[in-house]
Design brief:
alpha+beta, seven-stranded mixed beta sheet, six-stranded mixed beta sheet, 20 strands, globular
Length: about 450
């Protein structure tokens, strides 16, 4: 649980975008909730305390701990440069740690072993411990299998030993999780979820996209591919910089609804699509909390859809109240900001049939992520007509929404005949890295055009 004084908590704001007007008998209410945090710890910014975010307060160390989990299975030696690049990347990440941050390095095979500092402890980052840790990386060598659940379990035990609020993991793998069952991995993720966040990276092309993205999703972190091991150092540096920019953890999106209102779904829609509906924990009789993880200086969008009771023209009601909640160690919680979702019934057809631009945009972005994944699955199974239809629709949605990055990735899998109509042809040959990149990044969205 977070234990911040009010002065050190970043400022949160909530904005609600919706068309509140419904026709007589209309029941579905959609809203996009934009949550923005400012005054956090992003490098170069200043926190609410007025000191640079990368600097600890007098008498305080940074309120963070990080464990780096490096795949050291036998496949990391093919080619040998992969292991060398992983060592260099971990070294770069260690250099990015702020003074005072607690950290450790774990070597992952079919078992998890502490590389530094050892003895079940965490080191405190300073010039000396960074040098010691980088020297210890020389002992990393490839050999053995892959059991990612054991890596996460060790990381959890190490992070739990730190009296901090921000607990973060960085996990690198190059292969399939072959030395434990999917049930074992799920059990480990269930045990670790909510205890720390974790960014996951797949290096090369021999790993399973759904395993890596599933780890990141469960742990409220990011997932990506580093197809060329030479790019690991830059990626690890960026991940660690982002982790060092977090100032507050355990923020929950609380949704209160009146009697008679049913929640259809809650999902994050920017910067990535992330389903949150099933992650609800009951806060009280009428309210539930949805986890959002750690925050620095950033903005995210959430799509809330509720079903209200039928009502006649002229009636109106509060359909939902959305709050940002920061729980404290003593069991209390602080409301950081809140917004209201309303429903108003009208006989004005223009008002009631107008689709809010933000809602329309993110509905399309969620569909884009879905049809990419469906199209790639169809392609793998040999259903080329189905793949062409789904990926054609993806090209159309990407063009409509201005999602240029996804459009570029799609163009490596299909030949685009007409983006506006979604007319495409499947490429006869597609590089594994291109297909895996598209699948891994399929949930990345673009913000709505203002």
């Amino acid at each position: 649980m977070a234990n911040f004084s009010k002065s050190t908590v970043p400022q949160f704001s909530v904005e609600v975008y919706q068309n509140e007007y419904l026709p007589e008998g209309g029941r579905e209410v959609n809203a996009i909730v934009t949550v923005t945090s400012t005054g956090g710890g992003t490098t170069g910014r200043r926190s609410l305390t007025g000191v640079p975010a990368a600097t600890a307060l007098p008498g305080q160390g940074p309120n963070a701990a990080v464990v780096i989990m490096v795949d050291c299975s036998g496949s990391m030696d093919y080619p040998p440069t992969k292991m060398r690049n992983a060592r260099d990347a971990t070294s770069a990440a260690i250099d990015t740690l702020r003074d005072g941050v607690a950290f450790a390095v774990v070597a992952g095979t079919h078992v998890a072993k502490e590389v530094y500092p050892g003895n079940g402890a965490l080191a405190v980052a300073d010039a000396a411990t960074r040098a010691e840790a980088k020297n210890a990386l020389r002992r990393l060598s490839a050999g053995g299998g892959t059991a990612i659940g054991t890596w996460l379990g060790l990381a959890d035990r190490l992070l739990a030993s730190a009296d901090v609020s921000i607990r973060h993991g960085i996990l690198l793998t190059d292969g399939r999780n072959e030395h434990e069952t999917p049930e074992d991995l799920k059990a480990a993720l269930d045990a670790c979820a909510g205890r720390f966040t974790c960014d996951a990276r797949g290096v090369g092309t021999d790993w399973v996209v759904k395993e890596v993205t599933g780890i990141a999703s469960a742990m409220l972190g990011t997932a990506d591919i580093v197809a060329d091991p030479a790019g690991l150092a830059a990626d690890f540096t960026e991940m660690m910089e982002n982790a060092m920019g977090k100032e507050v953890a355990d923020v929950a999106l609380r949704l209160w609804t009146p009697v008679g209102v049913e929640i259809k779904f809650v999902k994050q829609v920017a910067p990535t699509v992330e389903e949150l509906t099933e992650r609800r924990t009951q806060a009280n009789t009428r309210a539930g909390d949805y986890p959002t993880g750690s925050w620095g200086d950033e903005s995210r969008d959430y799509h809330v859809c509720v079903q209200v009771p039928e009502a006649g023209v002229g009636q109106e009601m509060l359909a939902a109240r959305v709050s940002l909640i920061l729980p404290a160690a003593d069991g209390t919680s602080q409301v950081l900001s809140q917004g209201l979702v309303r429903a108003v019934w009208t006989d004005d057809m223009v008002a009631s049939t107008s689709i809010n631009p933000q809602v329309a945009h993110y509905t399309g972005q969620a569909e884009l992520a879905q049809v990419i994944q469906q199209g790639l699955e169809a392609r793998k199974s040999g259903d080329f007509d189905g793949a062409t239809a789904k990926l054609g629709r993806a090209v159309q949605l990407a063009a409509d929404s201005g999602n240029a990055d996804t459009a570029k990735l799609l163009s490596k899998v299909v030949d685009v005949v007409d983006a506006a109509t979604g007319t495409v042809r499947l490429k006869a040959k597609v590089a594994d890295a291109d297909e895996m990149t598209l699948e891994t990044r399929s949930t990345k969205t673009v913000r709505v055009k203002k």
